Amino acid sequence: MERDYAKEHEAALAENRAADEQIRKHYDIKDAVRRANEIVTVLDETLGEIRFGILNVSEFSALDLSKCKDTEEMLRNVVCAMFRKASPEITIADIEALPADDYTIITGIISPYYPGFLRQGEQILKAGLTSPQKLKNLGS
User: What gap in Å lies between CA 9 and CA 15, rounded to an integer?
Assistant: First the structure.
């Protein structure tokens, strides 16, 4: 049986391309910092253009979510902070005054951009954990 050098060469090239792709997937902190300073714009067919920012560690810590009485209050504070990055005049009162339908659509759109524990919020709520103390203890 004859060796097919062309196929072996193609296989080696594919392997090298796959290895190169894995190298490119390494975390780039400078890129993450850049993304945290950008305004995200999403076009929704119902609400139109929605603009918000991704919270960095300092902004998230400044929210002091430990003072919130439940996960809904935490979520409203995070949503407000994210909107405030794009429009500094937004207040928590504005977020709380949104029509419930709009708020539901908005939270669905921006949820992939939430800080980690909020992205897991559905699982937390399903488990019946609603107090901030219970959320803190979830990881232990």
Answer: 10
